[in-house]
Amino acid sequence: MPSSEKPRSLERGVVTSSFPSALPDPTGLLDLDTRHVWHPFTQARTAPEPQVIVRGEGPYLYAADGTRLLDMVSSWWVNLHGHAHPAIAGAIARQAQELEHVIFAGFTHAPAVTLAARLAAELPGRLSRIFYSDNGSTAVEAALKIALQAGFNRGETRTRILAFEGGYHGDTFGAMSAGATSGFYAPFQDKLFQVDFVPYPATWAGDPEVEAKEWAALSALDALLGDDVAAIVLEPLVQGSAGIRMARPAYLDEVVRRVRAAGGLVIFDEVMTGFGRTGRLWAARHLSEAPDLMCLSKGITGGFLPLGVTAATEELYRAFGGDSFAQAFAHGHSYTANPLSCAAALASLDLTLSPETAANWERIGAAHERALPELSAHPHLERVRRCGTILAAEIRGAGEYGGNVSLELRQFFAARGLLLRPLGNVVYLLPPYVVTDEQLGQAYAAFLDAAQTFGRPG
Ligand SMILES: Cc1ncc(COP(=O)(O)O)c(C=O)c1O
């Protein structure tokens, strides 16, 4: 039986009911984990044992068995400034001693108001209203509902939603509907609402067909547009879960203009691309056009606590004003605008807007750029691409997206001290901004080794 298929033992270790303190006992913990924990996006029957992580510092995660992992995927794209950053940890601790939470209907508080005002000052276009929720999926869910209800409140009959093929927007039903072609939702297909999908002209360094793909995608969009379109939702510049697929800003600008000319709203899902991943604060800052709604989460708290934001224009907000509650946005979550999350987000925003972080975006981008020629020249790599701090390439002949090779690749990288989580044969780096050039060098070298080991020439 290949080691990746080894069933996790139910028999190991002593089961204790308290969490291990100073010296964690990985064996006991894994036993409890096997009995009681249901991990996300994991086939427990075939997945290797999860690794017990006891500490994080900078770009490193420290495991109970004494090993150290360089977190090159920012722990599912949430971490920005390194693990356990003292400024964010301190802000949460201070806030916890003042006010941990309060119902956000009928009440407000300084962390939520300050964060809303500071985000509004940085957001593109006329986005000035902040609706809080808990995560990326709920941020998208709220955006879709706002787009639909705004039309409903105005007496319009616009109900159709458009999205890009391959796009991923989260795992709640609205987000799944908008991500129906991402390949994750077979058991739910007949429960998803109708969304029309526009081809996504993914591109890479030296792609000779990019313009032809963009024109074809634009004419497919034209064929879908009509006076019943409420909105398009899209991941600007980089589709994340679809396999780090990149599109050009000029093309996206044209999409925005055409949807808007047809009277539809534009929703940017910047859950992954936000807070500097693309080398600017927002992917939207690479475009001339701005969205009507924007979704943020993941990096918003620097990776410390869950928080979702749906930013809207004042014009959209006004569509919900009226004499009756029926026009209000009847949507909310128990932990809406949690003060601890908002305090973490404010501390993270200070770090994000610092000159040091901007310099790090430049530095990481420049390092990726220097690595591109060698990666592009490797006969086993194809479609090498970069956007800001994100670098990706496909290992030729190593199976398609969704194949089993990603698990083997994960183990290959782990053996070299790297946390990398390829999406099928797509290997990508999406590091915390504190990663050093030397650490990036280690990742590029492992990338080339993996290509050599798993790939074959075209
Ligand atoms: C672009 C995008 N939107 C939405 C989501 C969903 O976010 P969450 O996992 O916080 O629900 C993700 C998660 O990967 C994402 O990448």
UniProtKB/TrEMBL annotation:
One of its GO terms (biological process) is biotin biosynthetic process. The record marks 41 as: Participates in the substrate recognition with KAPA and in a stacking interaction with the adenine ring of SAM. Belongs to the class-III pyridoxal-phosphate-dependent aminotransferase family. BioA subfamily. Its EC number is 2.6.1.62. Pyridoxal 5'-phosphate binds at residues 136-137, 269, 333-334. GO terms for molecular function: adenosylmethionine-8-amino-7-oxononanoate transaminase activity; dethiobiotin synthase activity; pyridoxal phosphate binding. Substrate binds at residues 76, 168, 298, 332, 421. The keyword S-adenosyl-L-methionine applies. PROSITE patterns: AA_TRANSFER_CLASS_3. Catalyzes the transfer of the alpha-amino group from S-adenosyl-L-methionine (SAM) to 7-keto-8-aminopelargonic acid (KAPA) to form 7,8-diaminopelargonic acid (DAPA). It is the only aminotransferase known to utilize SAM as an amino donor. HAMAP family: BioA (MF_00834). InterPro entries: Aminotrans_3, Aminotrans_3_PPA_site, BioA, PyrdxlP-dep_Trfase, PyrdxlP-dep_Trfase_major, PyrdxlP-dep_Trfase_small. The modification N6-(pyridoxal phosphate)lysine is found at residue 298. This is Adenosylmethionine-8-amino-7-oxononanoate aminotransferase. Gene3D superfamilies: Aspartate Aminotransferase, domain 1, Type I PLP-dependent aspartate aminotransferase-like (Major domain). It comes from the Bacteria. Keywords: Aminotransferase, Biotin biosynthesis, Cytoplasm, Pyridoxal phosphate, S-adenosyl-L-methionine, Transferase. PANTHER family: ADENOSYLMETHIONINE-8-AMINO-7-OXONONANOATE AMINOTRANSFERASE. One of its GO terms (cellular component) is cytoplasm. It is found in: Cytoplasm. Homodimer. Pathway: Cofactor biosynthesis; biotin biosynthesis; 7,8-diaminononanoate from 8-amino-7-oxononanoate (SAM route): step 1/1. Its cofactor is pyridoxal 5'-phosphate. It catalyses: (8S)-8-amino-7-oxononanoate + S-adenosyl-L-methionine = S-adenosyl-4-methylsulfanyl-2-oxobutanoate + (7R,8S)-7,8-diammoniononanoate.
